[in-house]
TrEMBL record, chain B:
Family from the record: Belongs to the sigma-70 factor family. ECF subfamily.
Xref: PANTHER family: RNA POLYMERASE ECF-TYPE SIGMA FACTO, RNA POLYMERASE SIGMA FACTOR HI_1459-RELATED
SUPFAM superfamilies, per database record: Sigma2 domain of RNA polymerase sigma factors, Sigma3 and sigma4 domains of RNA polymerase sigma factors
InterPro entries: RNA_pol_sigma-70-like (IPR039425), RNA_pol_sigma-70_dom (IPR014284), RNA_pol_sigma70_r2 (IPR007627), RNA_pol_sigma_r2 (IPR013325), RNA_pol_sigma_r3/r4-like (IPR013324), WH-like_DNA-bd_sf (IPR036388)
RNA polymerase sigma-70 region domain mapped to chain residues: 31-97
Keywords tagged on the record: DNA-binding, Sigma factor, Transcription, Transcription regulation
Matching Pfam families: Sigma70_r2 (PF04542)
Phylogenetic placement of the source organism: Bacteria, Pseudomonadati, Bacteroidota, Sphingobacteriia, Sphingobacteriales
GO biological process, one term: DNA-templated transcription initiation
Molecular function as annotated in GO: DNA binding; sigma factor activity
Listed name of the protein: Sigma-70 family RNA polymerase sigma factor
Amino acid sequence: MSDLQLTELIERYLAGDLSNEEKERFEALRKENAAVDSRITEHARFTGLIKQYGERVELEKRLNAIHQEIDVDTLVQELTVHPTLIVRLWRNHHSKISVAASIAVFAILSTLYFTGRFNKTTASNYTALSRKIESVRRTAENAQRTNQALLNSLKPGHRVTNPGTTGGSGFALTQSGYIVTAFHVVNNADSLYVQNALGESYHAKLIYTEPTRDIAIIKIDDKEFTGLDKLPYNFKRTKLDVGEEVITLGFPRDDPYYAKGYISSATGLEGDTAAYQVSLPVYAGISGGPLLDTKGNVIGIISGKQTRTESAAFAVKSSYIFKAAQNVSTDSTQNVIALKPNKAAKSALAGLSRTQQIKKLESYVFMVKVYN
Amino acid sequence: MSKALNSSAPTDSEVVFGILNNSENILKRVYVAYFPMVLQLIINNNGTADDAKDVYQEAIIVLYNKVKSGNFELSSKLKTFLYSVCRKLWLKRLSQMSRYGGDVKDFQDHLPVEDEADLHSERDIQFTKMEGALKQLGEPCKTIIEDFYIHDLSMQEICERFGYTNADNAKTQKYKCLQRLKKLFFQQEQRDQ
């Protein structure tokens, strides 16, 4: 029997086309010959695969025909999720963006670190106006001062002292010797002295500090101190408008220094509502000095200046002096500071000429000398 | 539009009976009903509309074969089943194209469908080989084999179509064609291994 004949038999057998007699003979052959048996299985499997393949092709044709009827383009338009531009940019470039961002953060942090931004907040464009007195200058002045001391040695209450490590200005709150100044002037002080325009120097002690507002209150506790005359100025509780003329008096050096300017902004550095920005020529040492309006009302305390701009100073608003005075009075039974608001009576400075105003003011503004 | 299509979706048992009864209508309705869902999945995960068509048709074939073989149990919604199979198939393709970014953006619930997708691809390989072997076989062998083994034509009909003078000639021709097809098919199998 040829292979062709065998194949034909197998096909007829699988299709069930064999007569009973033929079928019996073929099944007997299949039993005794294993090769025939495996040929049958293999043939059935292979032709089955052809058949299945045909069915698959047929099914795919049907599905394609169905697919043709669907309006795919419209569906694509409808179903595409359109992320926002930012999301798409992020998806496409997020690795690059991440790298760039981390480099930027690193650069900023290292720049800040190296410029010392972390050590002192707002130091970059703010300078406190307390006076640093270098040792060189101190020795030079010592000589001069000794001379002066000799001249003034007859005056009561006068002491011969060196000018201190740092210094600033302050002004009287009450007749009894309470003086307000800037906190940064008296910060870290071991010992405090105040000196008036006549060169008289008194020992003082720290009563109260408010570092956030840069306010400190000290009190003269010297036996020689006999009290002040009635204060010529009042304290203004309300805010001043931008553009109003202001004056200040302070001690950037041993003699009082006067400056005139105007309120240039109702807020201080970086929008600080506790302070004014004032257009005034200022020097180190004037910190703690009074800021007055032209009618002789105290409206603030000079606290600092902008580094990059000339004559842009900052002053803490006078309403905080009221608060500080109130805090002192409530905190302690011994210290009572009653400020005279400007509504109580007309300031003694009102109506005077500028030179007379300054002359009167001089006796109530002090140089604050700090030893540490 | 997608809502309108969904509302005309046949029920799950309708689909099963429709496939068993070779209903062209049901096949069409189920195809149209769930295609947008799969299109949405693919085009929003780095695919094209053509990718969606391929993947979806594969999934429909998986469903079709499962129903035909009689071991399809409606353990979940048909919609979820189709979505899960498509999702699985697309993940596989994405990883093959190395366009896979970690996870796909999903629009539907899905189930793990490891088995179906794997079984399907094994059968797919066999079919791809058969397709290749038939292509290489050439005419008239290809048509003879297709007519006899796929379209179930009798030898007599084949004789008449090809103008063979007698059935024996046709039988010999068909035998030779089948031998060659086997050879081509198993050659491919060896080449792949």
